[in-house]
Amino acid sequence: MDDVQQDRLATLRSIPLFASCPPDDLAGIAASLESVHAAGGETIFREGDPGDVMYIIAAGKVRIVASGRAQETVAELGPGDFFGEMALITGLPRSAGAVAVTDARLWRLEKGRFDAMIRAYPPLSIEMGRVLSGRVRRMGRLTRVGRDLAGRTAIVTGASKGIGVEIAKALAAEGCNLVLTARSAGKLDEVRREVEAMGVRVLVVPTDVGNRADLQSLVVRAMTEFGAIDVLVNNAGQLLTLAYQKVHPHEMDEMVRVNLTGPMFLSWLVLPGMLERGAGHVVNIASVAGKYGPPYNEIYAATKAGLMGFSQSFRASYRDAGVSASVVCPGFVKSGMYARTQRAGLKAPRALGTTTADAVAAAVVRAVKEDVAEIMVSPGLVRMLMALPTLLPGVAEWGRRRLGTDDLYRKAAEIKAQRRAEAAG
Ligand SMILES: NC(=O)c1ccc[n+]([C@@H]2O[C@H](COP(=O)([O-])OP(=O)(O)OC[C@H]3O[C@@H](n4cnc5c(N)ncnc54)[C@H](OP(=O)(O)O)[C@@H]3O)[C@@H](O)[C@H]2O)c1
Description:
The model has no long low-confidence stretch (mean pLDDT 87). The protein contains 16 helices and 15 strands. Helices cover 48% and strands 17% of the residues. The N and C termini lie far apart (61 Å). The chain folds into two domains: 3-120, Jelly Rolls; 140-423, NAD(P)-binding Rossmann-like Domain (Rossmann fold, 3-Layer(aba) Sandwich), CATH 3.40.50.720. Helix 6 packs parallel to helix 7 (185-196), helix 6 packs across helix 12 (357-370) and helix 8 packs parallel to helix 9. With 425 residues, it is an alpha/beta fold. NADP nicotinamide-adenine-dinucleotide phosphate binds at residues 157-164, 182-184, 187, 207-210, 235-238, 258, 285, 287, 330, 332-333, 336-338.
């Protein structure tokens, strides 16, 4: 290894941002850095320039200057800081310029290499979020999440259809900027147009919640676009009502990834930034099925029960540090996945009643504003029945059969099995 390469490697090793990269990979990144000098007063890039490289400061000082009046200084950066990253991720032209304050020695990293790094090392995206949040905090822009959501930023997963769309609208009505995610890019764009008309800023990031690399990119894009994430709503979910012995192992894996480990990983990614600012709230959309597992829904019930336990523990751990969590448990909602069951001719027992996506969305907003641990969104009888499995388990089972819920799920499982057999020919 020659002296220049040694020097680059030493610079990278001294930067916390790269501490997580394995030594071999770090050597690869170091080899792809290009050394650049900027004289004091020299413009490194201007607002509107394409975002095709990232810079790491090896020595000297750089000022980030924002658009608009009188070239306002957004941040002054020194050795170990990086800049130019936002435009790299968003693909948009740069929204601020960079000027060397003193003579500066910089390392340039190309966009392709940067993208690969972000996808490859989860801690890298976290560290990047932490650094960016720290900058925002130093600029004094943020305080604890509370009653006023105006100007905050929320990620909503599963925002392409069903309940997620109403959650996005309810948060927008509070003045919250939004990062909308799901797999269906086209549908997300439709929701974006609707929500933007409410006067908030919206970023759409098509994401598979079951894919960790996608989630890492999502968080970095959100952080770089908005500077910080105040609220995360883990709403995306999948339902499979089917006799358990007919479930494929890959379906088990996928549902656990989307309904449970995806939300847990996404919370893990946003947590360091929230702790850095002492402000943040995670809302997990579980289900009454997580409180009392219905028949033919083994995986769904297990993931939703897991999500409830995760929320309770997360809340207990971080609330004193200004970061909280809530779990919202809807019953039968008139839209979304239950509505599709209805289209197959199945109806929830009258006595249990239904609720609306609007009511779930209102519960999400209340959970954040009033910091409520758990909200069950369902008519009163369901809420009462949900106390029975703990107090009187035998009565709970008897009641569920009498009310006809077991029959509803059995029929739904039969329909699913029949459709699957027809599809298989
Ligand atoms: N509807 C109800 O009666 C009810 C009751 C209790 C709880 N819930 C819960 O409420 C939440 C929303 O349900 P919903 O009724 O609105 O369901 P839905 O209409 O089926 O919508 C589910 C959302 O999750 C997204 N999604 C699914 N798999 C994904 C993946 N791998 N990656 C990213 N996004 C994914 C979907 O978008 P793409 O397909 O575009 O990816 C969609 O936006 C779920 O967590 C559900 O368990 C619903």
